[in-house]
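Before surveying the methods themselves, we first show a specimen of the format, giving the amino acid sequence and backbone structure tokens:

:::
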Amino acid sequence: MAQRGDGGVGYQTVDADYFSKRGLARYAGVASLWALGVGAVISGHFSGWNFGFATGGWGGMLVAGIIIAIMYLGLTFSIAEMSAALPHTGAAYSFARTAMGRWGGFFTGLCENVEYVITPAVVVTFITGYVNSIFGLDAAYSPLIWIAFYIIFVGLNVFGLELSFKVTMTVTVISLGVLVFFWASAVPNMDFSRWALNIGVGPDGAAVELPEGGGPLFPFGISGVLATLPFAVWLFLAIEQLPLAAEESIDPKRDMPKGIMLGMFTLMVSAFMIVLLNPSVANVGSFKLSASLEPLLDGFRAIYGDSGVAILGIVALTGLIASFHTIIYAQGRQIYSLSRAGYFPRGLSVTHSTYKTPHIAMIVGAMVGLGVMLIIWFALGAEQAGASIGSVLLNMAVSGAMFSYIAQAVSFILLRKNAPHIERPYVSPLGVPGAVATIVIAVVTLAYQIQDPNFTKGVLWVLVWFAVATVYFAAIGRHKLVLSPEEKFAQSKGAEAYETH
């Protein structure tokens, strides 16, 4: 039996046990939410951000980081308000569904889906770079390392919410401890002018190394700052995943805003310290880091030598592992929420009968991410794929994220305008201007991301992703929607209080 909605959309009446088979457990408090948010991002302080030195030099990287931090402040304050007002697992999809209708919610959820399925693939690429460097492994065996890490960390996420959050807290605290240890080690060994400022501009306009350092803060000018924005995103990417834990939070209306903002401020401090100190270490430098897959390990090597490289490398892996683990968590919840409401096949949202985790969603999401990596690997060949796969996937993840940020900021503005009656336990201090700043910076970041030759390859994959999902939703999904908490809230325009099943 179906209830007809507008635009040919049909809500189906489901069995009484539909939601009991899709139950989640509540566990997370402020500390767990903080660890989930910081852990999701922290790998970006270990690898990925440093490629921005090649486009902006040290000054360009710093200013780009500040601009992106402003974008994320506008975003996180906005989602802190929305997550407390709409405490559903759907997060970005839920916000957009209430503000912009079903298709708006679907496409916003799809953007976030690309981000959370592909980001773990990017992170495991960096993990593999570290592992190969530590143990001297042939890059031809990289797919085996990818598969091993996916099996281990999907397993940890499946076998219990409490275990997942304890692992998240442990690896996040260790990761921050590693960074603090590196900062303390770097200060006595830094020479900022000699090493951080060792990038100049060659005759072809590309970065060149200045052997004596002392180069300009902004070797590529304002255009270099703007071109560095996509790389600076890696310093904060995925903090926005926290609202996906709303239905596993003990008190999301109170704790979610606190967890989000504490996480954001922690990351801002860490981002500044790593951008300042990593390239300033003697015998490292911005130029070397601009092409490094393991910048933190390079810093440790320069300070402590090669004798303990295996131990230092394993220590440096913790940040990558923290993000890999926590984003797999987010991936599962994001797929679960779209499936529970019927936008994705509903079987994906069934939770484990014992552990109450969305195990099918996590396994399928992991298989898709790994499948994309393997297709690129075998299509290009091991040598060429090894050099470009991380960049292609990174562009896919960042482009998906930017579109979802724009949609979430628009949702915030529309909810402020059209739904002032919704209870808001937390109110963003930046309000609509903060959301507007997020939109403007995200659009500019996308515009400069287009200049990366790997962007086109990444976008083509994203377009295929969108096409397949859109055909499914238009032909099947929109006729099989279910009144999940997100849909009920949106249908009542916020008049019906949130309820759990």
